[in-house]
Design goal:
The chain has five helices and five strands. It is α/β, with parallel strands linked by helices and about 160 residues long. The chain has one domain: SPOUT methyltransferase, trefoil knot domain (Alpha/beta knot). A five-stranded parallel beta sheet has the order 2-1-4-3-5. Strand 3, helix 3 and strand 4 form a beta-alpha-beta unit. The longest helix is centred in the C-terminal third of the chain and has 19 residues. The radius of gyration is 15 Å and the shape is globular.
């Protein structure tokens, strides 16, 4: 199975990058998870940029990073509240159907509404607001945990 994470933003704190790299390195060769970072649209810091324009520019970069066979799953605070079991079940189903899920983490202002509409699913990682670096770590860990459940690996002990 192939999974891609497309995340807006190229500079993450070292602790977050180290954690994501650690989880991604744990997957076996037949369950490949790849992180693709895309550039955030520059913001002046004055808050006078049209948010829709910023999100649309980021959405164009996201779409360009999505593999041709990818099925987009956006991470959004208003998305469905999945349990780890549901994530594992979805991954197992997508694996069996030969699908390539692409999990998308937006930029500082979120994701373009049109990109969200085109997604196969919209999921939230938490009801809490998370910094983007932590969202990457949490997603990588949950993908690893879901894989461990599918593979009957002892990492998940629930």
């Amino acid at each position: 199975m192939r999974i891609t994470i497309v995340a807006v933003g190229q500079r993450q704190p070292a602790w977050a990058q180290d954690a994501v790299d650690d989880y991604l390195a744990r997957f076996p060769a037949d369950f490949k998870v790849e992180l693709k970072e895309v550039k955030a649209e520059p913001r002046s810091g004055k808050g006078n940029e049209p948010i829709q324009r910023l999100m649309a520019a980021e959405a164009a970069r996201i779409r360009a990073a999505v593999p041709a066979d990818g099925r987009i799953v956006t991470l959004d605070e208003r998305g469905a509240d999945w349990t780890t079991d549901k994530l594992a079940s979805a991954l197992g189903r997508w694996r069996d159907e030969g699908l390539h899920p692409v999990f998308v983490i937006g930029g500082p202002d979120g994701l373009d509404p049109e990109l969200k509409k085109s997604a196969q699913a919209q999921v939230r990682l938490s009801s809490l607001t998370l910094p983007h670096a932590l969202a990457r770590v949490l997603l990588a860990e949950q993908l690893y945990r879901a894989w461990s459940m599918l593979a009957n690996h002892p990492y998940h002990r629930a």
